[in-house]
Amino acid sequence: MLITLLKAKLHRIRVTEANLDYEGSLTLDPDDMEAVGIVPYEKILVADVENGVRFETYAIAGRRGSRVCCLNGAAARLGKVGDRLIVMAFAQAAPEEAAGWQPKVRRFERNVANPA
């Protein structure tokens, strides 16, 4: 049996852009993705702190160093520039692997990353 655990979290990252005319996803700075182990095209769960909306999509890499967090496609209707998001990725593990499990978390304040 496998259980699903939180693997990675970008905590309160601010939306910098919204692009309705894109096929979908959430564009993130590769620096932020790599800090927590989110890979391009990985399924993510996104929670908007401002409006309570939660949705699933996938992560794509933007320009390194840009601090981009862009809602694309239909997701662009679920939040707005300035909203704080919690971006989560999960992994499956055997119960014995769960003992002592610690997700990688990057916390954001005023859209500046503060590694946890």
List keywords for this structure.
mainly beta, 116 residues, nine-stranded mixed β-sheet, Barwin-like endoglucanases
User: In percent, how helical is the residue content?
Assistant: under 10%
Rounded Rg: 14 Å
Shape: globular
Order of helices and strands: EEEHEEEEHEE
Backbone structural class: mainly beta
Report on this model:
There is one protein chain. This protein is mainly β and 116 residues long. It has a single domain, classed as Barwin-like endoglucanases (Beta Barrel), CATH 2.40.40.20. Helices cover 9% and strands 49% of the residues. Strands 2-6-3-5-4-7-1-8-9 form a nine-stranded mixed β-sheet. It is globular. The termini are far apart.
